[in-house]
Design goal:
This protein is mostly helical and 92 residues long. It has a single domain (15-82), classed as lambda repressor-like DNA-binding domains (434 Repressor (Amino-terminal Domain)). 59% of the residues lie in helices and 0% in strands. Helix 2 crosses helix 3 (46-54).
Length: 92
C-alpha cells in the first residue's frame, strides 16, 4: 500500500499561511499595538514587521513565539485556535 508523500506548498501566499498572517495581525491589533510599537519593543524596523504580516517574508517558529509574547498571547492557545477553525476569517 503506497501513501502519497506530504508536500510543502512553496508559495508564501498559500491559504494556510494567509490565515496565520491574518490571525497574527489580529492578535497585534487586539493587543492595541501598532507595527511601530512592536518594532520598537523588538529592536527592529517597522518594515520588518510589515513584511512578516503581509507575507513578504516567512516567519520562523522563534519569531512567532516572540511576537506572541509581545502580544500577550499564549502560543498553545493561538495554535489551537488556528487549527480548530482554519477557514474562519474577518473577525475583528
Amino acid at each position: 500500500m503506497s501513501r502519497e508523500p506530504y508536500r510543502f506548498e512553496k508559495s508564501l501566499f498559500s491559504a494556510a499561511n494567509e490565515e496565520l498572517l491574518h490571525r497574527l495581525r489580529r492578535a497585534r491589533k487586539h493587543a492595541g499595538l501598532s507595527q511601530i510599537e512592536v518594532a520598537q519593543r523588538l529592536g527592529c524596523r517597522q518594515t520588518f514587521i510589515s513584511k512578516m504580516e503581509c507575507g513578504g517574508r516567512r516567519i520562523d517558529v522563534a519569531e512567532l513565539l516572540l511576537l506572541l509574547r509581545v502580544y500577550g498571547v499564549e502560543p498553545g492557545d493561538f495554535l489551537r485556535d488556528l487549527l480548530s477553525r482554519p477557514g474562519r476569517r474577518r473577525e475583528g
